[in-house]
Amino acid sequence: MKLPQLLLFDLGGVLIENNTFSRLQALLPQTIEGTELSILKEKWLSSPVVRCFELGQIAPSEFARQFIEEWSLTLSEQDFISEFLSWLKGYYPGAHWLIQRLRQKYRVACLSNSNVLHWEKFGQLDTDFDLAMSSHLLGAIKPDAAAFAMALAHCQVTPDEVWFFDDVQPNVLAAAELGIKAFHTDGFADVQTTLLANGIRLT
Predict the structure, then answer these.
(1) Under DSSP, is residue 165 helix (H, G, I), strand (E, B) or coil?
(2) pLDDT the model gives residue 18
(3) How far apart are CA 155 and CA 113, in angstroms?
(4) CA gyration radius, the chain
(5) Ramachandran region of residue 12, left (φ > 0), alpha (ψ -120 to 50) or beta?
(6) Of 64, 150, 183, 197, whose CB has the highest number of CB atoms within 10 Å?
(7) How far from chain centre, in Å, is Cα 14?
(8) In sequence order, what are the beta bridge partners of 7?
(9) Which candidate, 113, 128, 140, 118, places its Cα nearest to that of 44?
């Protein structure tokens, strides 16, 4: 199998522990139907206010106001922002080490649907990766083809030179449609298993 020139990773749920949906589930009023995690994830991915925030089109205060209204939360805007900041915990154990190990043989980049609050929380990303890309800085969001096209241009690679890892199936399918070798990986353990199964040594 041809090995890649670039390893491109999503962050939350892939390299960084993401508690968004379990925390959101705990905050929702009991009167709302359809609070299963799978349903919450679908609602999140289709939410207009989430999309606007992750495209960098609205400020954190406006995101908080609209999100509280959309999801019928009882938190104040300030308390919601504090809660929201806590939803991404940090790198999974061993993930940061693996990134640096992979960078010895490959170019390693990230492409995340993120926002100004979470991006600033992980302020070292520009040094952790050869290139760190976020939707709110690109002005393009996965699974839109424009996000992948911009990532390829920034990294100066062609689709067939890239392997992409993401925990959201629509993102994986969108990347594959462009000719990128894309893997659906749910959590860091799955990332490691997938890399090994496809000939990438981790040690």
Answers:
(1) strand
(2) 93
(3) 17
(4) 17
(5) beta
(6) 64
(7) 8
(8) 108, 163
(9) 113
Is the CB of residue 108 less than 8 Å from the CB of residue 129? yes
Q: pLDDT digits over 74-99, tens only? A: 999 999 999 999 999 999 999 999 99
* Structure token digits, residue 11: 């962050």
CATH superfamily ID and name for 6-17+90-197: HAD superfamily/HAD-like (3.40.50.1000)
Identify the H or E element spanning 203. Answer: none
Alpha-carbon dihedral of residues 30, 36, 39, 45, nearest 10 degrees? 80
Hey, what amino acid is at 52? C
What residue ranges do the domains of the chain occupy?
A: 6-17+90-197, 20-86
Longest dimension (CA), the chain: 53
Pairing mode of beta strands 88-91, 131-134: unpaired
From residue 133, alpha-carbon distances to 136, 139, 174 in Å are 9, 10, 17
